[in-house]
Amino acid sequence: MDLATYADLAVRLVNTASCGEDDGDRLATMDGLRDLVADREHLSRGASRRDLDALRGLRSEFRKIFVACAEGNGEEVAARLNSLLIRHPVHPQLSGHDGQRWHVHFTDSGTVADKYAAGAAMGLAVRVTELGIDRFGVCEAAPCQGVFIDTSAGRTGRYCSERCMRRAGVTTLRARPHDVPPAAGPEQSAQGHQPSLRHGPRATSLKWDRYQPVMASG
Predict the structure, then answer these.
(1) Are 187 and 206 in contact (CB under 8 A)?
(2) What is the average pLDDT value for the chain, to the nearest integer?
(3) Cβ neighbours for 214, distance < 8 A, ≥ 6 positions apart
(4) DSSP per-residue codes, the chain
(5) CB under 8 Å to 51, separation ≥6 — which residues?
(6) In this predicted structure, what is the pLDDT of residue 165?
(7) How far is CA 102 from CA 1, 5, 40, 41, 99, in A?
(8) Which residues partner with 54 through β-bridges?
(9) Which of 84, 87, 89, 126 is nearest to 109 (CA)?
(10) Quick one: three-class SS letters along 78-118?
(11) pLDDT digits over 51-89, tens only?
(12) How confident is the model at residue 173 (pLDDT cuts 50, 70, 90)?
C-alpha cells in the first residue's frame, strides 16, 4: 500500500480547480473526471454525473484541510479529516489487477466518488501524522488556488508546480524597482558627460549595479 499516492489523490483533486487567470476548471465535465482517475483502474469504471458532482464538493472540503494546515490549525485539520473518514470509511481489500503484484486497496466498494474520498482521506490522514501539518500548504503564486505536500529535505516548498514557481519568480522580478540613471550634477558638461569623482589623489568612477533575475525557490 503506497500511502503517498493515496494522499496525492487529495492533492490532484484540489488542483483540478483553476490555477490562474488563463486556466479553466479541469473537473467541469465527465471527460475531466475520466482524466482525473485515468491511472487508477479501480476508480475509472462506472463513473457517473453524480460522481462528478460529489467530487466537486469534496474538492472544496479537501482544500479547506490544506488551508487549515497552512494556518497551523491542527484541531481543524483533525476535525475535518475525521469527518471525512466517518462519512467515507475504508474497507481494505487485496487486489492483483492487471498483472500487478498483490497490493491493498483502501476500498473497492461504493461509488467512484466514495472510493476516491475514502482513499484520499485515509492517505492524507496518515501522511499528516507522519509529516506534520507544516508540510501541507497552499500555493503562494497568486491567483493560484492549488495545494501541495512538501517532501523536500529543507522544507522549502512554496508552490504547487514548477509552472507556478516560475510565474512567482517573474512576478518578483517585475516588482523590483528599475535602474535609475544618476541625476545631472552641477559639473555635468554640455555634452552630457559626467566627470569622475575624485577623493584625494585617486579617481573613482560611479558604477550602477543592475538587478539580476531571482527565481523563488520551490
Answers:
(1) no
(2) 78
(3) 169, 172, 173
(4) --HHHHHHHHHHHHTTS--STTPPPTTSSHHHHHHHTTT-TTTSSS--HHHHHHHHHHHHHHHHHHHHHHTT-HHHHHHHHHHHHHHS----EEE-GGGPPPEEES---S-HHHHHHHHHHHHHHHHHHHH-GGGEEE--STT---EEE---TT-----SSHHHHHHHHHHHHHHSPPP-PPPPPTT--TT-PPPPEEETTEEE----PPPPP-PPP-
(5) 33, 111, 112, 113, 116
(6) 79
(7) 10, 16, 15, 14, 9
(8) none
(9) 89
(10) HHHHHHHHHHCCCCCEEECHHHCCCEEECCCCCCHHHHHHH
(11) 999 999 999 999 999 999 999 999 999 999 999 999 998
(12) low
CA distance 146 to 150: 13
Per the DSSP assignment, residues forming a β-bridge with 136 are 149
Number of residues assigned to the chain: 218
State yes or no: pLDDT of 217 exceeds 50.
no
- Gap between the Cα atoms of 59 and 208, Å rounded: 50
Q: What domains lie within the chain, and their CATH numbers?
A: 3-133 (1.10.3300.10)
Cell numbers describing residue 100:
500487478
Q: pLDDT at position 21, please?
A: 58
C-alpha cell at 37: 482517475
* pLDDT score for 62: 97
Q: Which three cell numbers stand for residue 164?
A: 507556478
150 contacts 128 by C-beta, under 8 angstroms: no
pTM value is: 0.72
